[in-house]
Write a structure and sequence with these properties.
With 56 residues, this protein is mostly helical. The protein has helices at 2-23, 27-55. The model has no long low-confidence stretch (mean pLDDT 93).
């Protein structure tokens, strides 16, 4: 469960960073946001896998 929560948090923070980077015309911040959002997606997937394993 904690992986899913961390994943959602990282995804939200990544989206916010990307929006700020686009607003400030800062490609480096946009890239950080994209990377953090991808990290969040991976964490959520990891949580899904762990959950599926625990149900078996």
């Amino acid at each position: 469960m904690s992986d899913k929560i961390k994943g959602h948090t990282n995804e939200l923070v990544g989206k916010a960073k990307r929006a700020v980077g686009e607003a400030l015309d800062r490609p480096d911040i946009v890239a950080e946001g994209d990377a953090q959002e991808a990290k969040g997606d991976l964490q959520k997937a990891k949580g899904d896998v762990k959950g599926a394993i625990n149900r078996v």
